[in-house]
Amino acid sequence: MSVDVNPYNKKVIYNRLDQYHLIFNNRIITNHINEILSPIQQFFHIHRMDSSFFDVFAKGMEWASMTNNFVHRLLRDRGDIMQWTQHSLCADEVYKQIEFKRYSNEFSLYRSIPKEASRARCFLESEATMHLVDWTRGNPYTFDIDDLSYLLSSKCMFARKFDSRVDKKIIDSLFKLDTGNDFIM
């Protein structure tokens, strides 16, 4: 699991939790409603979170490899987690990391992201979570057959993103490699 205890945009991300956000099935409506609600909440100093919560705030990728003990901690605290993540945006990128930081004396990280990391942050997060995601070439980048050697040389166990409409050959090659059959080059 990646835990960024000092994200460069901490206040913006923190507002996703601290302010009430109404979520609708339509993203456009959700964005418009929340664009109206945000300044109103700021004007009236409406905060969902206790000010001490900002001290334990952390963020990271929504994907994570976690120990059994940490999963049990999350399950034990799920009522509290549901309460402070309800009516928030992108809680999947913060709830695990915040819980980890709150109980950091009980758990350890495989690899942490240094505070001074900037542009390389996405690669460090990938290594920390064992997920290879390339945000520098796309949103995220869709791997193709030209990336096969790059993928195979990575230390990551998982990769995102593949699309058979973009390049089916990379998917077939990785599948055949995984199943022990000869793969296509």
Task: Tell me about this structure.
The protein has 2 domains: 10-102, no CATH class; 130-179, no CATH class. Helices cover 42% and strands 3% of the residues. It is built from 8 helices and 2 strands. A two-stranded parallel sheet has the order 1-2. It is globular.
Main sheet properties: 2 strands, parallel
Instruction: Give the overall average pLDDT.
Output: 81
Shape descriptor = globular
Helix-strand pattern, N to C? Answer: HHHHHHEHEH
Q: Give unreliable regions as ranges.
A: 117-122
Number of strands: 2
Helix amount, in percent?
40-55%
Instruction: Give the C-alpha Rg.
Output: 19 Å
Strand order of the largest sheet: 1-2
Span between N and C termini? 33 Å
Task: Based on the model shown, name its key terms.
single chain; 185 residues; two-stranded parallel ribbon; 8 helices
Please outline what is shown here.
The protein is mainly α and 185 residues long. It has eight helices and two strands. The longest helix is centred in the N-terminal third of the chain and has 17 residues.
Write the layout of secondary structure elements.
Elements: H1 10-18, H2 27-43, H3 68-76, H4 78-85, H5 95-102, H6 121-129, E1 131-133, H7 148-153, E2 158-160, H8 168-179
Parallel strand pairs: 1-2
